[in-house]
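Researcher: I'm comparing several assemblies side by side, and this is the next one on my list. It has 1436 residues spread over four chains. Same procedure as the others: predict the full complex and return the structure.
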Amino acid sequence: MAGNSFGKLFILTTFGESHGKAIGGIIDGCPSNIELNLEAIQRELDRRKPGQSRIVTQRKESDTVAFLSGIFNGKTTGAPIGFTIQNENQKSKDYSHLENTFRPSHADYTYAQKYGTRDYRGGGRSSARETACRVVAGAIAKQILIIKGISIEAYVSSVGGISLDKSHKELDLSKTEDSIVRCPDKKIAEQMISRIEEVRKSGDTIGGVVSFVAKGVPVGLGEPVFDKLHADLGKAMLSINAVKGFEYGSGFDGVKLLGSEHNDSFISDVDGVSTETNNSGGIQGGISNGEEIYGNVAFKPVATIMQQQDSVDKEGKKVELDGKGRHDPCVVPRAVPIVEAMAAITVLDFLLRSKATQV
Amino acid sequence: MAGNSFGKLFILTTFGESHGKAIGGIIDGCPSNIELNLEAIQRELDRRKPGQSRIVTQRKESDTVAFLSGIFNGKTTGAPIGFTIQNENQKSKDYSHLENTFRPSHADYTYAQKYGTRDYRGGGRSSARETACRVVAGAIAKQILIIKGISIEAYVSSVGGISLDKSHKELDLSKTEDSIVRCPDKKIAEQMISRIEEVRKSGDTIGGVVSFVAKGVPVGLGEPVFDKLHADLGKAMLSINAVKGFEYGSGFDGVKLLGSEHNDSFISDVDGVSTETNNSGGIQGGISNGEEIYGNVAFKPVATIMQQQDSVDKEGKKVELDGKGRHDPCVVPRAVPIVEAMAAITVLDFLLRSKATQV
Amino acid sequence: MAGNSFGKLFILTTFGESHGKAIGGIIDGCPSNIELNLEAIQRELDRRKPGQSRIVTQRKESDTVAFLSGIFNGKTTGAPIGFTIQNENQKSKDYSHLENTFRPSHADYTYAQKYGTRDYRGGGRSSARETACRVVAGAIAKQILIIKGISIEAYVSSVGGISLDKSHKELDLSKTEDSIVRCPDKKIAEQMISRIEEVRKSGDTIGGVVSFVAKGVPVGLGEPVFDKLHADLGKAMLSINAVKGFEYGSGFDGVKLLGSEHNDSFISDVDGVSTETNNSGGIQGGISNGEEIYGNVAFKPVATIMQQQDSVDKEGKKVELDGKGRHDPCVVPRAVPIVEAMAAITVLDFLLRSKATQV
Amino acid sequence: MAGNSFGKLFILTTFGESHGKAIGGIIDGCPSNIELNLEAIQRELDRRKPGQSRIVTQRKESDTVAFLSGIFNGKTTGAPIGFTIQNENQKSKDYSHLENTFRPSHADYTYAQKYGTRDYRGGGRSSARETACRVVAGAIAKQILIIKGISIEAYVSSVGGISLDKSHKELDLSKTEDSIVRCPDKKIAEQMISRIEEVRKSGDTIGGVVSFVAKGVPVGLGEPVFDKLHADLGKAMLSINAVKGFEYGSGFDGVKLLGSEHNDSFISDVDGVSTETNNSGGIQGGISNGEEIYGNVAFKPVATIMQQQDSVDKEGKKVELDGKGRHDPCVVPRAVPIVEAMAAITVLDFLLRSKATQV
């Protein structure tokens, strides 16, 4: 209720500030008797961790997850899975100058006003560091989904103005991890990397888009009328730091189409019913129809820039902020595993929910 | 949990199918001792109802709401508010041909698969008729919000390719209701109306965008980290029938900006702290910052078209569907009060939630 | 969240005041494709309705339920089931003398203080009339449970000091409905009836105990650690008007036993594992173990008595209250179907929850 | 939803098995800006910890809590409070004989059946060790409640057949901690201690009752109709390991009273409205009325006894179990802080919920 939990049946609750002792979480409702590959979970964290390439923040954190409960002899027991990730990089001194100052487009001002107090060391609770816990839960969700034949993949489709002009169907997503920007098209990836390096050199930041696709989702996931599958997917994505927009299927471009162009005709063959086109994005009436579920998530440029900015302090006095610290020039390469995690958690949650429809 | 409730503290639960006896709902958690203007609630319903103008469906429903509880001597009592809206237009015969057929891009197929049965009279539960109940709850939420100085306004900003090129700041939103398409710019409105009439004549449909703005929202609404204010606003909008995308503040366009362009500088004057620009859309770190909250909601073209379409039936056999019935050529004029309702419910819910932060 | 909903997956939300237009509710999460016997639902309501015998209130209400949605061609569709029960007995004049007065041990004072206003016609929302809606949902739950071989039975085991000295195992529960007091032992039933008539003649009221037993509950229902099956059963019962206590299995008497006396030995035969004794009341570690689940629910004497009582009014001035109206001298005969309903709703909810434990 | 969370606004989620690495939890929704006394939290844990006296288990655990987040410069920040308690006593070898065996009246059988697997080291998740996390959250809740003038006290009122015959009003609760059995009446306490020692010597266990009283609770806490204050208090208590019953106010004894005896007359003086008697237990219509809230919680005898018992193994074969390990002969002395914790968490949760009733 205070907003630190996500999911109805597969529930992730997280805790932790960027510069506290540790971050962590509890996964409640994880199905029992699932054999977990703990190394694979760590690998997902490594895809998100800082310092992994030259185009992300050079901060150093190993982001090693420790599981404290809910797993016995390599299998889930049905009990809640508690886990922690130690914060190794807690040099509070870097942040002492921020105690009384509100950084532009950060959460400093809103947190201070809402809570009447603020952990001013880094972003505190508002730091994207919290998303590491989502990646842990997402990695577990993915391992369960794959047993059911469901896969989730995300990739960078836009950095600044440089965009892929191909849909996920035309891309070879097995190539996403080949480039440090996580764009599966080699040529566009290189342009994106150049753009990010250029922006970083100028002490600035740039936004981008992460696209995702879920394959193998069975018919029937999603609960009318408020908990439509895409509504909760949208909430999942919009809850990620820096996200400003979400669309699925035909999305914002679909508004320009005629109904006769947009409608997806049903066809039928030996494999059952499917649709000829997929403007619906695999969801009709809020419920998955068996087609691929796909969409886009828009990330704004990171607020921390290496340039001087005007702002105000607690007393409302004008102050000048220097650009300091080690931050991402563009968040999307590291956001890919986070988008995958939130999609996986959401789909698994609805998979469990779908089981309660019939006795 | 089965998806027919929205909100955590101000909770709307709805029931009803398009061709059942009635639709209705329960509003639980409505603050007590609020004097309600019941005529104003009905007026909001009238903005949504069919038959209101030549560019919407010509179906006839008076959409009269009857309140059954929770209001005594004109005031809310704190008890749940039960209400019903009778379905006057229940001619099931219009729909008998649909018993075994799945209409393209409707929810027929997914409902049938999910539930193993289907109320095939019209859209049943998947019909946008359900949104009338949202408008009732939204109208009550609006009346409470206005006491706190908070207003919610929506308008049509795009129909097909015809779009406003002005932001809400440059528009006179008091003119929205002057045009049947609910676009506040008279010239663009006329173009939109022409486009809808043209599309209707061809038996087709077209999509559009509804924009919204919430003014007067105090600092501090929104719960980190999963229940960010914009995440729940996004879910609220994405749960409306036919919505394919949501963005707030700078939205999808913001991804092209540099951090130095996107950041909103804080300034301070006698009225307190504010921001010079508002790319943040009034929300920072998921919490309202006192600026105007604004965004866009994308609606796809209505799936029911007056043209012949291919489809399949229950057994997977190919069938031809004739275009029948009286449907909207474009949903956005009637969607304006729905978008307002969902925004109002969401903001009021978070207003109540914010009260629980401090003892 | 405002307390008018019960259940996590099979969710009942109710509305309505004793003297408003109607009471009613929404059942969300009802499994689809279940053939419902609507007459059987009405029969359950008839077991609860006023005027059914000489030992209950002589108020007249037919308590006829009307279903508005969620049922099509006799079967549940998976959509929410909306229903109403009209209030036929709305003579507000009977209650005008209560506008400014707080009746002893009623909810008048606490409602007025909590909400700053009060529907003073009868009990308003605090009236036990609301429980009719629980009986509707419970009757549906029972019909679903019986398909799975689960039955729920309740009976009166004590009125004032007159108590059954037999456990449910020694009683013939098919005889419960043979007596108007709903005690399956004819001799004790007659004593109870005499006691109630005596108490009624003196213008007084008396308390009692309703016992329940659930048979055929499969192993595995109940969620550790907070949602133990008996914890939610206890909450379900304690939420019924006038309930002061709940115990299950050995209950309060169990505290006097030694562990060696209390422990239920496991035995095994062709039918599988069972226990020799059942002090555990069919629940171990909060999870059903396949044995019969049984317990007791304590009801205080009804607060409305036909005697003069001292009280205070809104201004704190002393007032004398006359005994008026038509009320139950003892609530337990009519509480039997309510206890059954709450048990059925709870068990069905956990049955649905148990499905989400494994993928 | 999987049952490891408690509360709606002040929410405790726990994790951990008795013989895993650690137990712990997350408190979400804790009001911000509260100065916490961490030593006082540890003192509450010390009241629950094993080895504290000769009449409890002699197992050794320091039960030291470590806070990982949500507290900054000694104050709560509004962010979730993550905490862990290391398990120091993880000698799994003690439990290897239990891998295939179901101990009578333990949760071994039901967990194995429900989850298809089981952490057989000690009680695993079903161990009362989990309640240490409740004590942490309860200790924080108490510190917040006391700021609002609300205190919660519990004490042992019965061990086996030895019972206090005084109500909380006649007792000096400041003396509860003077005796190792936590009964405030010295003479009865000594009898209880002798009884427990006697039972322990015979390798057996015995049940008991913990009584509680909450003073200073303001009028207005509790949500009709399902979330009555006593219904959630009841659930809170029934969720504690080994609890078999709950009653409040007049409780089970109240069923024998006449309405004219049971009703609590309102009186009014300079301090406002109060009641002459308090059979209502401080709650009317599910809402606190300003009087003292009190009740009783029944604990069965601990299932682990130091005697040989018959049972069955996984294959249903008969086995003999030896009494092994170090367990409590009577759980109630250590249950006192747990009952207080659950009461405190519940009351604080409703205090926060009451804030959302009016805008």
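Model: For your comparison table: The first strand of chain A starts at residue 5 and ends at 6.
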